Amino acid sequence: MSIKPAPRTVEPLALAFATVLRRRRLAQDLSQEALARRADVSMRFVSLLELGRHMPTINTMQKLARGLGMPLSDLVREAEDEPPQE
């Protein structure tokens, strides 16, 4: 008998951050790879963030905000204001 892990629930804030990150990246016509280079993170990590599979640390959020050329406070505020996804 094998035991299957419980399905992961996606936190609403992770989904909101994912939406804002992708929207901001696309608005600047950046690929995930380009943003990853600017933010000094892996492209795979950017992909997982945009899918809502991971929630970044505050340090990573700062790197992403700098990579997007915006203050971290604006990035967080947009994520907080993002309507819940159903």
Task: Describe this protein's structure.
The protein is 60% helix and 0% strand. The chain has helices at 12-27, 32-39, 43-50, 58-67, 72-81. α2 packs across α3 and α2 (32-39) packs across α4. Residues 21-75 form the HTH cro/C1-type domain. It comes from Paracoccus mangrovi.
Q: Which residues sit in consecutive blocks of at least 5 with pLDDT less than 50?
A: none
Helix proportion range: 55-70%
Mean pLDDT: 89
Number of strands: 0
Main β-sheet: number of strands, strand sense, barrel status? Answer: none
The count of helical stretches stands at: 5
Topology:
Elements: H1 12-27, H2 32-39, H3 43-50, H4 58-67, H5 72-81
Helix pairs in contact: 1-5, 2-3, 2-4
Domain HTH cro/C1-type: 21-75
Protein name: Helix-turn-helix domain-containing protein
Pfam families: HTH_3
In a nutshell, what does this entry contain?
The chain is mainly α and 86 residues long.
Please tag this protein with its features.
0% strand; 86 residues
